[in-house]
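Input/output pair, single chain:
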Amino acid sequence: MSNRLKRLFAQKPKGLLSVYFTAGFPNLNDTETIILELEKNGVDLLEIGMPFSDPLADGPTIQASSTVALKNGMTIPKLFEQLQDIRQKTQIPLVLMGYLNPVMQYGVERFCQKAAEVGVDGIILPDLPLQQYVEEYKELFEKYNLSKIFLITPQTPEARIREIDSLSNGFIYMVSSASTTGKTVGLAEQSQAYFQRVSEMKLQNPGVIGFGIHDKDTFEAACTHASGAIIGSAFVKALHREGSLPENIKSFIQSIKN
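Output:
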């Protein structure tokens, strides 16, 4: 596990706020501003989405932000260029989230090497099958000290969750439902039963809950079952509002925290 992630979960085992944003949205060069403003407003962990033209797990909000980001000219090389000096300005843990196809086109080893070089701590690739990771990529991730973060859902069997736990070295992304991101119903009773079940498994990796976390109530509910929660679509929407980026970020984060 990267030292930054390890330190974060040791210092803050509960109530951790993670935020997802799409690189290149609303504007191509907003990446650094968004990172620094989120940190300034007390966010603990950031997930930076690498936009892709066919994002399976993403709901309409994040899909739309991906489309805009791609139109704006966001690419993996561009993102790495933007992150080049980020570690001189912040030590907040950074996780890149995206799909396998663009990473393979860039070159998986080259991607891992570059991610490590700019100070990325972990990678989430939801469409990379576990078996393929083990056979083809595990050694690379370990070589470059990148945490590989896997998703589990209410449908994931216990044996698979335990296998994922043994292969993980950061945190486990607990998807709150089997639907796409951005659905904003409260955390349903069946989700609660699933969180409880996972919690009773006493996994070695902390869990962070994502999908459907959009306000103070859903954030706090999720935090009772896991180390923290991830807010994506609701934050991406907030970036779209009238007003300056720093103001929008501040008011949104305050609405979750206060």
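Strands lie at 16-22, 45-49, 94-97, 122-124, 147-148, 151-152, 172-175, 207-210, 228-231. The chain has a mean pLDDT of 93.
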